[in-house]
Each structure stands twice: as structure tokens, then as C-alpha cells.
Give the backbone structure.
Amino acid sequence: MEKEQLPRHVAIIMDGNGRWAKAHGMNRPQGHLEGAKRLEEIIKVTRNLGIEILTVFAFSTENWQRPQDEVSMIMRTFISLLGQKAKELAQKGVCIHFIGRRQGIGPEVLKAMNTATEMTMANKAMQLNIAFNYGARSEMVDAFKSIADLVRTGVIKTEDINEDIVSNYLYTRGQPDPDLLIRTSGEQRLSNFLLWQLSYAELYFTDKYWPEFNEDEYLKALDHFAKRQRRWGGLGTIENKE
Ligand code: IPE
Ligand code: IPE
Ligand code: MG
């Protein structure tokens, strides 16, 4: 695949761990553990292909509604994974950002997140955004509050507010928007993920559950992306055909 046909930024809703486990006679925690292995694989492939940014949805602001034991299992898995893998990712040049509200996340999880951030912050080979306690609406509400403060304190005027200012107050500030969104498990919805940033993303849905989404499946998605014609509201190559 040619570099110019690859997305610069891929976003993934990693869904279907629980259903995968059920389909294999296992329990939901086993599904999350298998899902974690796929995440590791997909990060490596992304890094090796030279894709600049990967944003993965790991835990939403709505996922707290799940039974307490599942939530704590996810938190424990997250802490241990970060502990085990941060060093390796650091050596591979991956820079980890956590996107989402820090408020509401337990102290042990925050500690693991801070350590992983510090270990990888100088890296340049690839940016990995891990959306954790993330919700796009709360992200936008927080941005609007910060912008309202800028107006109130006279830093900017209402008429100065533009798309760049809004983008600069989102967690993804400074990064190009995702070119490709992948969602696994057959669901075709955004579930409050990157609502602003996905405005012009190409959407790719697969029936594969996240624990089944291996390198081959990823390459298939990238191949689909390479064949898409993006027009950004214009006419693209339709223009040239006439
Ligand atoms: C995605 O898999 C992981 C998280 C949301 C944490 P699910 O846990 O949503 O799996 P399903 O959708 O119930 O199969
Ligand atoms: C979206 O999956 C969130 C993550 C993958 C972390 P969900 O499983 O929570 O989404 P819904 O509930 O099916 O919309
Ligand atoms: Mg799900």
C-alpha cells in the first residue's frame, strides 16, 4: 500500500469483547483480555505502517453503568496492561495521550496513566490516543466552558470564535482529524465518540468482534479506505470525468 493512500489518523471503536467471549463459552473478562491482545497487535501494525495517529475507544463515560465487577475488572486490566506495555511502547517511539475526563477515574488508574504519559511523552514515531472515561459531548461541553471564559475575561470576542478555536479546546488539539473510523462487532453507531473530529471521516464497519480484529482484518479496512473517494463537499474527480 502506498503511503499516500494510508490514513494519517485512524480511530477505532473496539467493540464486541463480551459477545466474542460468550460465543466461545467464556466469560466477559476473558473477552476483555483477548481484546487487549488485539490492541497490542493493532498498535504494532499502525506503527510499522507509519500511520501517524491511532485513537482507540477503551472506556466511555457511559461504561460506568456496567455492573461494578465488570468495571473493576476493566480498571485492573488497564492498570496491569499499562504497567507491562508502557516500556515497550516507549522503546518503539510511541507517544501515549489519554483523552477523556480525569475526574471520576480512581487514583491507581490515574497513577498508571501518568506514568505511561511521562515515559512516552518525548516520542515522535506514532501518537496513541487512548480514550478512557471519554465522551464526546462532555469533551465539547468542557471546550465551550473554556471558550466562554475567554470571552468573559476579554481575551477574545464572541465573533472571534471559529472552528479552529473549538478544535483547540478539544482533547485532540493540534492533531489532524481522523481520516478513518473503524467499528467492530456489527454495531453501526458512534456511541458518543469524537463527534466533532469525525465530521469527514470515512466510516468502516465490520461484523468481526474486537478480539477477532487482527492484522489481516485491519489491512482489509485500510484497503477499503484506500479505495474511497473523499470529496469534502466538492466534486473530487467527478469534475474531471465530465
Ligand atoms: C468493548 O466490548 C469494550 C468496552 C466497552 C470496554 P464490550 O464490552 O462492549 O463487548 P460487547 O459489546 O458487550 O460484546
Ligand atoms: C463503545 O462501546 C465504547 C467502547 C468501545 C469503549 P459500547 O459497547 O459501550 O457501546 P454501546 O453501548 O453498544 O453503544
Ligand atoms: Mg459493546
The longest strand covers residues 126-134.
